[in-house]
Amino acid sequence: LLFIPFIISVGLNLYIGGQFYFDLYPIHNKAWIPHFYTIEYYFSILFNLGLLVVEFRLLFKNSIKYQPDIGYDLKWIRLFYTFHVLLIFFWILTSVVDYYYNSDYSIIIWLLLNILFYWIGYQGIYKFTLAKNRFEIREINKKKTNEKQKEPVKFKEGEDNPYFKKFIQLLENEKVYRNQQLSRGDIATRLNISIGYLSQIINSVTQKNFSDYLNAYRVKEAKTMILDPEFDNYDMVAIGLEAGFNSKSAFYKYFKKETGHTPTTFKKIHKE
Fold first, then answer.
1. What is the Cα 233 distance to its own chain's centre?
2. What is the pTM of this model?
3. Sign of torsion, CA 154 158 163 167?
4. CB–CB of 258/219 below 8 Å?
5. pLDDT tier at 71 (50, 70, 90 boundaries)?
6. Which of 191, 174, 192, 146 is nearest to 244 (CA)?
7. CA proximity to 33, closest of 8, 58, 11, 16
């Protein structure tokens, strides 16, 4: 349905262009053409305003309840939304100025569109590089896991709850914390207990909630990779994502909470 206005616009523009630019066929009645372009122009503005309302509800209203404990990284798409708002604002502003002062300020819209396209291009290249880094880091970690002999998990005093022990074995042996979307429900299902009981066990043994305890493991793994020379050439964000964090902001937040430093500062201090 969202593509229908675009298809109609392209079809009619090709039909008009076929006569005006290539003289492929005659258009006997041309009186409707200026009206079509006027309708197309103002419908485009109204259509975009409608999209902004829908986008706002999806990004800032309804999406919150769908986020897991850490939350999806919506920062980049919210930035895209902000750019969309600015684009429509200047589009309306230039239309009003053009109407009253009979001048053409559409260059502003083209400038903003160019900035937007370059930004999308940058994001695409950055995300591709990040994905490539993550793939290579994952392969190195697989190799290290295969080479390293599994040692029996050692438990501290007070960690004698059988379900907590199974939970620790999932973290230590299966590295389940590397799963960015891992939830309390997933672990509770694996242990065959309720989510509430799982939270109660973790809190009573560690004095931490599920997210904090899981992220402590992720920070520990990130620290190991940061200090390993084999990972020196990889992006810091890629390391955090492969440790199990699902966004740069979550990675930096919990890393600083656990170590008192950002990942870059931590690496610099320990390398020195």
1. 23
2. 0.61
3. negative
4. yes
5. very low
6. 174
7. 16
